[in-house]
């Protein structure tokens, strides 16, 4: 950590707490309670997944605005605002039987996700603790373990209280914990960009229009689409290979364990090579693990190792996207540039599960779909020549 790191440790704890709560509650509540909500309301089976995807796409679209706000006002205000808005949106979603109100409410949650998930936290860590380093890894580990810790809690609340009361409890707890963490702990001085007004816009636009920016962003977005399309449809892929559902679910859980390993390995490995070579390795590794998932036929140990490997590459992808900006363009207007860089990557992550299911439907199998995404990701390697 930089000088004064001792006084900034509470800030790192605050960022971890906000990410843990935001990923655990804002991101995972609908996937965990989706079936319960559908059964209780009688809505079409695709309604809740569609609402969830819509909220994620809105969060992706608002990533550039969130980045500008972080540069202008600092992460403390932005993340506290996002925490309050997220809680309000969740509470609103429980107020009536209307699918329209439910949809609009989770769009409000999408606004909150743009203000609270990784990019604002990465921007804060970049300025307070320096580019790269272990703080980014620690933050992503906090976000990563949120599903393991909170998914059983969310499911238990849904079983005991029903989905509406469960969401009310989760929203209230989230609003208090995440907002307090942001307000009380994210207190280090925030340095606004040196360039202001027109000079700032021209500086950002110059970077945004550069070949390196566009190529790097496109390559990572394509890799994200493939990684999330295949890993999040891993259970049907395995069952069509003859793996029983229970074992397939266990293997799917290993993707999360792999993410932790990938994030722990990222920092020491990121010291090697230059920005282009590191990007090349990340995208090429994505293509390789997607291919492995598409061609492996067993035994169970092989499926398990493939899942861990895919999870490790997916976990490293999160950090690769964050450090790609600082590696190339430094710290000036980092939040604004990261917001623009991250938007299509976040959109690809949101569309991944639907894209995976759609391509599997068109091709006749999830394994064939995996090979389609592997080919696309391999083609993305060619973009890195411009990066």
UniProtKB/TrEMBL annotation:
PROSITE patterns: MFS
Any single GO CC term annotated in Swiss-Prot or TrEMBL for this entry: plasma membrane
Stretches that traverse the bilayer: 12-30, 42-66, 78-94, 100-121, 133-154, 166-186, 218-239, 245-266, 366-384
SUPFAM superfamilies recorded: MFS general substrate transporter
Membrane topology: Multi-pass membrane protein
Major facilitator superfamily (MFS) profile domain span: 1-387
GO molecular function: transmembrane transporter activity
Entry-linked InterPro entries: MFS, MFS_dom, MFS_Riboflavin_Transporter, MFS_trans_sf
UniProt feature coiled coil, ranges: none
UniProt keyword list: Membrane, Transmembrane, Transmembrane helix, Transport
Subcellular location: Cell membrane
UniProt protein name: MFS transporter
Record organism: Aeromicrobium camelliae
């Amino acid at each position: 950590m930089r000088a004064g790191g001792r006084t900034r440790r509470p800030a790192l704890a605050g960022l971890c707490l906000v990410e843990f709560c935001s990923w655990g509650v804002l991101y995972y509540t609908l996937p965990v309670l989706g079936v319960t909500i559908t059964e209780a309301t009688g809505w079409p089976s695709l309604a809740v997944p569609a609402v969830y995807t819509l909220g994620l796409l809105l969060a992706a679209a608002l990533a550039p605005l969130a980045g500008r706000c972080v540069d202008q006002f600092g992460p403390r205000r932005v993340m506290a605002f996002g925490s309050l808005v997220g809680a309000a949106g969740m509470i609103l979603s429980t107020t009536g039987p209307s699918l329209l109100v439910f949809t609009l409410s989770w769009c409000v949650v999408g606004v909150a996700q743009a203000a609270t998930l990784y990019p604002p936290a990465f921007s804060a860590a970049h300025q307070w603790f320096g580019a790269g380093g272990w703080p980014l890894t620690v933050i992503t580990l906090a976000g990563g373990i949120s599903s393991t810790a909170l998914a059983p809690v969310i499911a238990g609340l849904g079983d005991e209280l029903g989905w509406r009361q469960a969401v009310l409890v989760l929203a209230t707890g989230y609003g208090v914990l995440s907002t307090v963490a942001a307000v009380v702990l994210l207190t280090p001085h925030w340095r606004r960009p040196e360039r202001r007004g027109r000079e700032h816009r021209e500086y950002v636009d110059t970077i945004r229009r550069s070949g390196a920016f566009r190529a790097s962003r496109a390559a990572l977005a394509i890799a994200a689409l493939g990684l999330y399309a295949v890993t999040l449809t891993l259970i049907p892929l395995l069952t069509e290979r003859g793996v029983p559902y229970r074992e397939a679910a266990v293997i799917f859980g290993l993707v999360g364990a792999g993410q932790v390993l990938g994030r722990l390995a990222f920092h020491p490995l990121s010291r090697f090579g230059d920005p282009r070579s590191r990007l090349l390795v990340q995208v090429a590794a994505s293509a390789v693990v997607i291919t492995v998932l598409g061609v492996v036929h067993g035994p169970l140990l092989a499926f398990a190792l493939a899942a861990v490997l895919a999870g490790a590459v997916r976990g490293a992808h999160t950090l690769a996207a964050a450090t790609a900006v600082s590696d190339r363009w430094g710290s000036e207007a980092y939040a604004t540039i990261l917001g623009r860089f991250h938007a299509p990557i976040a959109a690809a992550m949101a569309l991944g599960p639907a894209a995976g299911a759609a391509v599997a439907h068109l091709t006749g199998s999830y394994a064939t779909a995996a090979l389609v995404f592997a080919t696309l990701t391999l083609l993305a390697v060619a973009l890195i020549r411009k990066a």
